[in-house]
Design brief:
Layout: H1 2-33, E1 34-48, E2 60-66, E3 71-76, E4 81-86, E5 91-95, E6 104-109, E7 115-119, E8 129-133, E9 139-144, E10 156-161, E11 167-171, E12 177-180, E13 186-190, E14 193-196, E15 199-202, E16 207-210, E17 216-220, E18 225-229, E19 235-239, E20 252-258, E21 263-268, E22 273-277, E23 283-288, E24 302-305, E25 310-315, E26 320-334
Antiparallel strand pairs: 1-26, 2-3, 3-4, 4-5, 6-7, 7-8, 8-9, 10-11, 11-12, 12-13, 14-15, 16-17, 17-18, 18-19, 20-21, 21-22, 22-23, 24-25, 25-26
């Protein structure tokens, strides 16, 4: 009898030690399984849907903000016009054929209030061009493209102007971005090379963007990549990759930088989402998805962020521009669930003091 009691005591001691070891490994596994991530919370502020004439927007493809005048510019592609709104969404004015706006594609407003408007080929004008308007919306001149191969067929899509007056223009399906002087004369190209599916070539650039620090961003739809240069056009780094899942870009169309948080927002036409990266190109989170409700998109094509941190998205096939506020919280994501031993009796694992 004494031998049996002794054996049971030894068994209990060994099992209790084993349970302690199991508890420690479980706690460690649970801690490793938990990872902090950023969780976006969207507030829908309002939509832009009509012009001052009461006509609904038709396939709005572009949106930007004149921070100095506190106004919003929307390209209403279906009506070939530019609609201007107040910051709170009240429609003010229309730039159309009466203002020499025939086929607008993208625009940029410099610090002095001058508007650089990309215009594509139309019946009225056989060549793509950059039209310049003064702060009073009066047409000043057109810049046509010369001095490089394919200039006669070049179709401008987005434009950005640096503080030193250089004009950067991306074109439909064009390999690289044009660099022009302040008069529109061709200087050179920036043509990043990259590799996809083990094939190397020059990347197509669908959008160009310049932030307040002067960094130049070139976005490639075909490669699903962003190429970043400094103000002197020195290559810094590239980020993102082609794909159809979170953290990847399927058919990116445009990007913008939140100067307050230094986060980079990229709108993805085919995934109906906005992917967000930090200032070094690390993926953080995404929001959106295909839908019709506030905060959801249907083939969005452009994005901009104003000085108040509001996110404006050209929600093209939903026939609107959404104005959103994005707040970000830290959350805990459990990647795996802890597996506990299956025993024929109930056992509470508890770390000994």
């Amino acid at each position: 009898m004494k031998k049996i009691l002794l054996f049971l005591c030894l068994f209990c001691v060994v099992f209790s030690g084993l349970s302690y070891g199991v508890e420690v490994s479980l706690e460690k596994t649970e801690k490793e399984a938990q990872k902090t991530k950023l969780v976006p919370c969207l507030s829908h502020l309002f939509d832009l849907r009509k012009g001052p004439d009461g006509v609904f927007l038709a396939y709005p493809s572009f949106v930007c903000v004149d921070n100095a005048a506190n106004q919003i510019y929307v390209i209403d592609s279906g009506h070939s016009r530019v609609v201007i709104y107040t910051a709170d969404g009240y429609p003010l004015y229309v730039m159309d054929r009466n203002r020499k706006v025939e086929a607008p594609a993208g625009l940029f407003i410099d610090d002095k209030g001058f508007i650089y408007l990309c215009q594509v080929k139309t019946n009225g004008q056989v060549k793509g061009r950059i039209s310049i308007f003064d702060p009073c919306l009066r047409w000043r001149k057109d810049m046509f493209f010369t001095g490089f191969d394919g200039a006669e067929k070049f179709i401008p899509r987005t434009v950005a102007v640096s503080r030193n007056g250089r004009i950067y223009v991306s074109g439909d399906g064009f390999k690289g971005v044009l660099v022009l002087d302040h008069e529109g004369r061709f200087l050179h190209m920036i043509s990043p090379e990259d590799e996809i599916l083990e094939v190397r070539g020059k990347a197509d650039i669908c959008a160009v963007y310049i932030d307040r620090k002067g960094r130049i961003y070139l976005l490639s739809e075909g490669y699903g990549r962003v190429y970043v240069y400094d103000a002197d056009e020195k290559f810094l780094f590239k980020f993102a990759q082609k794909g159809g899942s979170s953290g990847k870009l399927s058919r990116p169309q445009a990007l913008a930088v939140d100067e307050n948080t230094q986060r980079i927002y990229v709108v993805d036409y085919l995934r109906h989402t906005v992917s967000v990266f930090d200032y070094n190109g690390k993926y953080l989170f995404e929001f959106g998805g295909k839908g019709w409700s506030p905060g959801w998109f249907q083939y969005p094509t452009y994005i901009c962020i104003d000085t108040a941190g509001r996110v404006l998205v050209a929600d093209t096939f939903n026939q609107r521009v959404q104005v959103l506020k994005v707040k970000v919280y830290e959350g805990i994501e459990e990647k795996i669930k802890t597996l506990r031993p299956s025993l024929p009796f109930k056992l509470r694992l508890k770390k000994k003091k």
